[in-house]
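Section 3.1: Structural characterization of target chains.
Under the original work plan, the team committed to producing a structural model for every single-chain target entering the pipeline before any wet-lab resources were allocated. The record below documents one such target. The sequence was received from the expression subgroup and is listed exactly as submitted; it comprises 348 residues.
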Amino acid sequence: MTIIWFALIAVALAVYVVLDGFDFGAGILHLFVAHTDEERRTVLAAIGPVWDGNEVWLLASGGTLVFVFPAVYAAGFSGFYLPLMMALWLLILRGISIEFRSHEKHWIWRSFWDGVFAFSSLLMAVILGAALGNVIRGVPLTQQGYFHGPLFTNFMPGKNPGVLDWYTVLVGVFATVALALHGACYLQLKTEGTLQKRLNATIPALWAAMLATGLLTTLATNAVRPELYANLILRPWTWLLALMIAVSVFGLPIAHRKGSELFTFIASAGTLIGLLAATAAGLYPVLLLSTTNAAYSLTVYNSANSQHGLQIGLIWWSTALAIAVVYFVFLFRSFKGKVNLGDNVYHE
């Protein structure tokens, strides 16, 4: 049962990264690819109907973690208190910037909120990547199952690392580049004209940057947490994930050169899903590794709720998931196609 719940949480997080990831990517690129007010309104219109719904998957992941692995939730949310508060404020600022921009037409007002949107999106991508880096690297868990994570210490991984060190920042940079590419792939699917041409010219450069930072991050991960790759090698079924990553990564520029907007976006999504799935498979069964003593680590076995609770919860979770999937299918079908500025409140 714990394996099922581990997989469900991993799926929910992957869905969140794919869906809200293109929102973050759109924000990161907002000031660079959209030069006029009309183009910036087009970018906001592309994500306007879906951005807040996409964040539901983050809430679902957190809520599921509380129910299934309460010890991990308690340790993580107390140890990462400061970064979580930063992320909360960034999400608030990001939402406010999207909603407030259209309230006034003055260029100073709109330029300010454009800056807030880009800034909050960029830092959220870095924080998400750094959070993943902390999970991979490990945290200084004590025997009591708690830890205190300062923002940074000596900027080096070790027994008592901070939230930020050279490794977690590197993962944050890679996440930022990958999400920027994902956002570009989504926006080229939703736009046309000069803006789309500018996005199409940006995608190859972002792909090359993602490949370079991805290879560097892979080597760094092998140095910081070599057992992750050892676990993958010992589990042959995970080699399919490596194949998925390779096909997605190298299929993206091929689809882009052929002008297939949909398959370019699918390849970007496949890259993110494959990387996250491979990471989860390599980490299993450890949820939070203790850098002070491996015996203090929180796993799916020593941090899970009761079996009866997990069985009952699976029924309700499956029902909620079915409802969410139906809603999102309806939502994206309703707003499929290119952006039309006349049909969206985000371009007034």
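Residues 188 and 197 are 8 Å apart (CA to CA).
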